[in-house]
Amino acid sequence: MKKILVVGSLHYDIMVDAHHRPEKGETVIGTGCSYKFGGKGGNQAVSAAKSGVGVKFLGAVGTDDSGKFLLSVLQNNSVDTKFVEVIDGIASGMSVATMDAEGDYGAVVVSNANLRINPNQFDNDDIWADVGMLLLQNEVPELVNLNAAKEAKKRNITVCINAAPAKELSPALQACIDVLVVNGVEARDMSGITVDCLETASKAALKLNQTFPVVVVTAGEHGVAFSESNGTCNSLPAEKVELVSTHGAGDCFMGMFCASMMNGCSLEESVSKANKAAAIHVSRKD
Question: What start and end residues bound the annotated signal peptide (predicted)?
Protein backbone atom coordinates (compact mmCIF):
# COMPACT_ATOMS: atom_id res chain seq x y z
CA MET A 1 0.00 0.00 0.00
CA LYS A 2 1.20 3.51 -0.79
CA LYS A 3 2.30 5.82 2.02
CA ILE A 4 1.59 9.42 2.97
CA LEU A 5 4.52 11.83 3.03
CA VAL A 6 3.89 14.64 5.50
CA VAL A 7 6.09 17.71 5.05
CA GLY A 8 5.50 20.03 7.96
CA SER A 9 6.06 21.38 11.43
CA LEU A 10 6.98 19.85 14.76
CA HIS A 11 6.28 21.80 17.97
CA TYR A 12 6.74 21.13 21.65
CA ASP A 13 3.40 22.39 22.98
CA ILE A 14 2.90 23.97 26.39
CA MET A 15 -0.80 23.83 27.23
CA VAL A 16 -2.13 26.21 29.88
CA ASP A 17 -5.64 25.85 31.36
CA ALA A 18 -7.50 28.94 32.58
CA HIS A 19 -11.07 30.13 33.18
CA HIS A 20 -10.76 32.46 30.19
CA ARG A 21 -8.13 33.60 27.75
CA PRO A 22 -6.45 36.89 28.69
CA GLU A 23 -7.42 40.15 27.08
CA LYS A 24 -4.80 42.72 26.13
CA GLY A 25 -2.90 43.73 29.25
CA GLU A 26 -4.65 41.17 31.46
CA THR A 27 -2.98 38.58 33.69
CA VAL A 28 -5.04 35.45 34.27
CA ILE A 29 -4.39 32.89 37.00
CA GLY A 30 -4.20 29.46 35.40
CA THR A 31 -5.62 26.21 36.74
CA GLY A 32 -3.13 23.77 35.24
CA CYS A 33 -0.61 23.05 32.50
CA SER A 34 0.68 20.14 30.45
CA TYR A 35 3.36 19.47 27.85
CA LYS A 36 2.47 17.78 24.57
CA PHE A 37 3.68 16.73 21.15
CA GLY A 38 2.46 19.17 18.50
CA GLY A 39 2.83 21.01 15.25
CA LYS A 40 0.21 20.57 12.56
CA GLY A 41 2.55 18.41 10.53
CA GLY A 42 3.45 16.16 13.43
CA ASN A 43 -0.11 15.83 14.70
CA GLN A 44 -1.44 14.99 11.25
CA ALA A 45 1.29 12.43 10.67
CA VAL A 46 0.51 10.65 13.94
CA SER A 47 -3.23 10.79 13.26
CA ALA A 48 -2.76 9.26 9.81
CA ALA A 49 -0.48 6.53 11.17
CA LYS A 50 -3.03 5.67 13.88
CA SER A 51 -5.67 5.49 11.15
CA GLY A 52 -3.89 2.61 9.48
CA VAL A 53 -1.56 3.86 6.73
CA GLY A 54 2.21 4.08 6.38
CA VAL A 55 3.54 7.59 7.00
CA LYS A 56 6.84 9.31 6.31
CA PHE A 57 7.70 12.67 7.86
CA LEU A 58 10.01 15.35 6.49
CA GLY A 59 10.87 18.25 8.76
CA ALA A 60 13.45 19.59 11.19
CA VAL A 61 14.15 19.76 14.93
CA GLY A 62 16.98 21.04 17.10
CA THR A 63 19.41 18.97 19.16
CA ASP A 64 17.58 19.94 22.36
CA ASP A 65 15.48 17.71 24.61
CA SER A 66 12.32 18.97 22.89
CA GLY A 67 13.63 17.70 19.56
CA LYS A 68 14.42 14.29 21.04
CA PHE A 69 10.90 14.13 22.49
CA LEU A 70 9.29 15.08 19.18
CA LEU A 71 11.25 12.42 17.29
CA SER A 72 10.43 9.77 19.89
CA VAL A 73 6.69 10.40 19.61
CA LEU A 74 6.79 10.08 15.82
CA GLN A 75 8.82 6.87 16.04
CA ASN A 76 6.63 5.39 18.78
CA ASN A 77 3.66 5.88 16.44
CA SER A 78 5.41 4.09 13.55
CA VAL A 79 6.11 7.27 11.56
CA ASP A 80 9.27 7.05 9.45
CA THR A 81 11.63 9.85 10.62
CA LYS A 82 14.49 9.22 8.21
CA PHE A 83 13.95 12.63 6.61
CA VAL A 84 13.67 14.68 9.81
CA GLU A 85 16.86 16.74 9.99
CA VAL A 86 18.39 17.39 13.42
CA ILE A 87 19.99 20.84 13.26
CA ASP A 88 22.66 21.98 15.69
CA GLY A 89 22.55 25.50 17.12
CA ILE A 90 18.81 26.15 16.86
CA ALA A 91 15.89 25.31 19.14
CA SER A 92 13.07 22.99 18.13
CA GLY A 93 9.72 24.54 17.33
CA MET A 94 7.37 25.24 20.22
CA SER A 95 4.02 26.78 21.07
CA VAL A 96 2.08 28.05 24.06
CA ALA A 97 -1.70 27.54 24.03
CA THR A 98 -4.25 28.80 26.54
CA MET A 99 -7.39 26.68 26.94
CA ASP A 100 -10.49 28.28 28.45
CA ALA A 101 -13.30 26.72 30.49
CA GLU A 102 -15.42 26.19 27.35
CA GLY A 103 -12.69 24.13 25.70
CA ASP A 104 -11.65 26.73 23.12
CA TYR A 105 -8.08 27.91 22.84
CA GLY A 106 -5.66 30.43 21.39
CA ALA A 107 -1.98 29.80 20.72
CA VAL A 108 1.34 31.45 19.95
CA VAL A 109 3.76 29.45 17.80
CA VAL A 110 7.55 29.95 17.62
CA SER A 111 8.74 28.06 14.55
CA ASN A 112 12.50 27.88 15.23
CA ALA A 113 13.91 24.79 13.42
CA ASN A 114 10.80 24.49 11.24
CA LEU A 115 12.02 27.55 9.34
CA ARG A 116 15.27 25.74 8.50
CA ILE A 117 13.83 22.85 6.50
CA ASN A 118 15.93 22.51 3.36
CA PRO A 119 13.72 23.38 0.35
CA ASN A 120 16.21 21.92 -2.15
CA GLN A 121 16.09 18.26 -1.14
CA PHE A 122 12.95 17.08 -2.91
CA ASP A 123 14.65 15.65 -6.00
CA ASN A 124 15.83 12.80 -3.77
CA ASP A 125 14.09 9.64 -5.03
CA ASP A 126 14.29 8.01 -1.59
CA ILE A 127 11.91 10.63 -0.20
CA TRP A 128 9.21 9.59 -2.67
CA ALA A 129 9.62 5.80 -2.54
CA ASP A 130 6.17 4.18 -2.09
CA VAL A 131 4.47 7.58 -1.57
CA GLY A 132 0.92 8.03 -2.88
CA MET A 133 0.00 11.33 -1.24
CA LEU A 134 1.81 14.47 -0.13
CA LEU A 135 0.26 16.26 2.85
CA LEU A 136 1.17 19.91 3.56
CA GLN A 137 0.19 22.69 5.96
CA ASN A 138 1.07 26.40 6.32
CA GLU A 139 3.46 26.20 9.27
CA VAL A 140 6.66 25.92 7.21
CA PRO A 141 8.10 28.32 4.60
CA GLU A 142 6.10 28.31 1.37
CA LEU A 143 9.19 27.51 -0.69
CA VAL A 144 9.39 24.17 1.13
CA ASN A 145 5.74 23.45 0.32
CA LEU A 146 6.10 24.65 -3.26
CA ASN A 147 9.17 22.58 -4.06
CA ALA A 148 7.65 19.49 -2.44
CA ALA A 149 4.37 19.97 -4.33
CA LYS A 150 6.11 20.52 -7.68
CA GLU A 151 8.11 17.34 -7.26
CA ALA A 152 5.02 15.38 -6.23
CA LYS A 153 3.15 16.53 -9.34
CA LYS A 154 6.05 15.41 -11.55
CA ARG A 155 5.61 11.97 -10.00
CA ASN A 156 1.77 11.91 -10.30
CA ILE A 157 1.41 11.96 -6.51
CA THR A 158 -1.74 13.54 -5.04
CA VAL A 159 -1.09 16.84 -3.25
CA CYS A 160 -3.32 17.69 -0.29
CA ILE A 161 -2.90 20.88 1.73
CA ASN A 162 -4.49 21.87 4.99
CA ALA A 163 -4.09 25.61 4.44
CA ALA A 164 -3.72 26.44 8.13
CA PRO A 165 -2.92 28.82 9.61
CA ALA A 166 -4.63 31.15 7.14
CA LYS A 167 -2.33 32.91 4.71
CA GLU A 168 -2.26 33.63 1.00
CA LEU A 169 -0.99 30.84 -1.24
CA SER A 170 1.08 31.73 -4.28
CA PRO A 171 -0.42 30.96 -7.71
CA ALA A 172 2.42 28.49 -8.31
CA LEU A 173 1.53 26.50 -5.19
CA GLN A 174 -2.20 26.69 -5.90
CA ALA A 175 -1.60 25.14 -9.31
CA CYS A 176 -0.08 22.04 -7.67
CA ILE A 177 -2.86 21.34 -5.19
CA ASP A 178 -5.38 18.54 -5.79
CA VAL A 179 -7.19 18.67 -2.44
CA LEU A 180 -7.70 21.75 -0.26
CA VAL A 181 -8.91 21.41 3.34
CA VAL A 182 -9.71 24.56 5.32
CA ASN A 183 -11.76 25.60 8.33
CA GLY A 184 -14.36 28.37 8.32
CA VAL A 185 -11.90 31.18 8.97
CA GLU A 186 -9.49 30.00 6.30
CA ALA A 187 -12.34 29.45 3.84
CA ARG A 188 -13.58 32.99 4.46
CA ASP A 189 -10.13 34.47 3.91
CA MET A 190 -9.63 32.52 0.68
CA SER A 191 -13.13 32.81 -0.78
CA GLY A 192 -14.49 36.05 0.65
CA ILE A 193 -17.57 34.19 1.93
CA THR A 194 -18.31 34.24 5.66
CA VAL A 195 -18.81 30.69 6.89
CA ASP A 196 -21.46 30.56 9.63
CA CYS A 197 -23.49 27.48 8.65
CA LEU A 198 -23.34 24.51 6.29
CA GLU A 199 -25.00 26.49 3.49
CA THR A 200 -22.30 29.15 3.50
CA ALA A 201 -19.61 26.49 3.94
CA SER A 202 -20.91 24.85 0.77
CA LYS A 203 -20.90 28.17 -1.08
CA ALA A 204 -17.31 28.80 -0.02
CA ALA A 205 -16.28 25.30 -1.10
CA LEU A 206 -17.84 25.72 -4.54
CA LYS A 207 -16.15 29.08 -5.03
CA LEU A 208 -12.80 27.60 -4.05
CA ASN A 209 -13.40 24.87 -6.64
CA GLN A 210 -12.66 27.51 -9.25
CA THR A 211 -9.03 27.01 -8.21
CA PHE A 212 -8.85 23.63 -6.46
CA PRO A 213 -10.29 20.34 -7.81
CA VAL A 214 -11.46 19.05 -4.41
CA VAL A 215 -12.37 21.28 -1.46
CA VAL A 216 -13.33 20.40 2.11
CA VAL A 217 -14.55 23.13 4.47
CA THR A 218 -14.84 22.20 8.14
CA ALA A 219 -17.35 24.44 9.90
CA GLY A 220 -16.93 23.53 13.56
CA GLU A 221 -20.18 22.83 15.39
CA HIS A 222 -22.11 23.10 12.10
CA GLY A 223 -20.37 20.20 10.37
CA VAL A 224 -18.40 19.92 7.13
CA ALA A 225 -19.01 20.71 3.45
CA PHE A 226 -17.14 19.14 0.55
CA SER A 227 -17.23 19.69 -3.19
CA GLU A 228 -15.55 18.89 -6.47
CA SER A 229 -14.83 21.01 -9.51
CA ASN A 230 -17.54 19.16 -11.48
CA GLY A 231 -20.09 21.05 -9.36
CA THR A 232 -21.06 18.29 -6.93
CA CYS A 233 -21.35 19.53 -3.36
CA ASN A 234 -22.45 17.76 -0.19
CA SER A 235 -22.35 18.36 3.54
CA LEU A 236 -22.52 16.43 6.80
CA PRO A 237 -23.73 17.78 10.14
CA ALA A 238 -21.39 17.73 13.10
CA GLU A 239 -21.58 14.66 15.31
CA LYS A 240 -23.40 15.43 18.58
CA VAL A 241 -20.90 15.09 21.43
CA GLU A 242 -20.05 16.81 24.69
CA LEU A 243 -17.18 19.21 24.00
CA VAL A 244 -14.08 18.85 26.16
CA SER A 245 -11.50 20.61 23.97
CA THR A 246 -11.20 21.63 20.32
CA HIS A 247 -7.39 21.49 20.46
CA GLY A 248 -6.01 19.23 17.73
CA ALA A 249 -9.42 18.48 16.21
CA GLY A 250 -8.45 19.72 12.76
CA ASP A 251 -5.27 17.64 12.75
CA CYS A 252 -7.20 14.55 13.82
CA PHE A 253 -9.64 15.20 10.95
CA MET A 254 -6.79 15.55 8.46
CA GLY A 255 -5.08 12.35 9.48
CA MET A 256 -8.20 10.23 9.20
CA PHE A 257 -9.31 11.97 5.99
CA CYS A 258 -6.01 11.38 4.18
CA ALA A 259 -5.67 7.83 5.50
CA SER A 260 -9.17 7.01 4.27
CA MET A 261 -8.45 8.47 0.84
CA MET A 262 -5.27 6.40 0.66
CA ASN A 263 -7.25 3.29 1.61
CA GLY A 264 -9.49 3.79 -1.43
CA CYS A 265 -12.51 5.37 0.24
CA SER A 266 -14.63 7.84 -1.70
CA LEU A 267 -14.52 11.55 -0.89
CA GLU A 268 -17.80 11.30 1.03
CA GLU A 269 -16.69 8.21 2.95
CA SER A 270 -13.37 9.85 3.82
CA VAL A 271 -15.04 13.04 5.05
CA SER A 272 -17.56 11.03 7.08
CA LYS A 273 -14.85 8.99 8.80
CA ALA A 274 -12.81 12.12 9.50
CA ASN A 275 -15.88 13.91 10.86
CA LYS A 276 -16.52 11.06 13.30
CA ALA A 277 -12.87 10.84 14.33
CA ALA A 278 -12.74 14.57 15.08
CA ALA A 279 -15.94 14.31 17.14
CA ILE A 280 -14.42 11.57 19.28
CA HIS A 281 -11.27 13.66 19.65
CA VAL A 282 -13.02 16.81 20.93
CA SER A 283 -15.06 14.81 23.45
CA ARG A 284 -12.12 12.86 24.85
CA LYS A 285 -10.64 13.60 28.26
CA ASP A 286 -6.88 13.07 28.31
Answer: none
